[in-house]
Specification:
7 strands, 7-stranded antiparallel sheet, 46% strand, alpha+beta
């Protein structure tokens, strides 16, 4: 009986080993799941109270005009990075953003505004965002009353604090 048990155990061991080898081989044949692509890097700008300075300069004119704004950007406001772009402040103007792109915290876009007096302001812009500041430029062309002039804008902004 001991001899029978030894042979049975040996046979059981051989069958178990063969089954384990076949199982391991079948697992090796199945490719590992492909991980999902990494989500895009988060936008660098932090929510909070921001001071934004937009300076306008017209070549050939000595006067430089600037506007300073305080804006509270909440998390939802900067989820769409396009909402964080400096806004044109000429009341009555209707502006649209075209060809907006964001890559590596650098935003580029085209601006087109119809002014309240029937003119047009348009051109490309770019901003580089960081967590607590940003800087950028826009090279605009103003057409009004048959006259065309260039307007160079610079944007600088810094985060001051949390929103209150």
């Amino acid at each position: 009986m001991t001899r029978f048990r030894s042979k049975s155990l040996a046979a059981l061991f051989i069958v178990a080993s063969a089954s384990a080898a076949a199982f391991a081989q079948s697992k090796a044949a199945v490719p590992a799941p492909v991980p999902a692509p990494a989500p895009p890097a988060p936008f660098a700008m932090s929510p909070g109270l921001w001071e934004i300075v937009v300076a306008n300069e017209t070549p050939g004119v000595d006067m430089k005009r600037s506007t300073t704004s305080l804006i509270c950007f909440k998390k939802d406001d900067i989820r769409s990075t396009q909402q964080a772009l400096p806004q044109q402040h000429d009341f009555g103007s209707k502006c649209t953003i075209k060809d907006y792109k964001l890559a590596n915290d650098v935003a580029t876009w085209g601006l087109s505004c119809n002014t309240k007096t029937g003119g047009n302001l348009s051109g490309p812009g770019t901003i580089t965002y960081k967590a607590a500041e940003y800087a950028g430029t826009a090279a605009l062309v103003s057409k009004e009353g048959g006259k065309t002039k260039k307007v160079n804008q610079t944007f600088t902004a810094k985060r001051l604090s949390d929103c209150k």
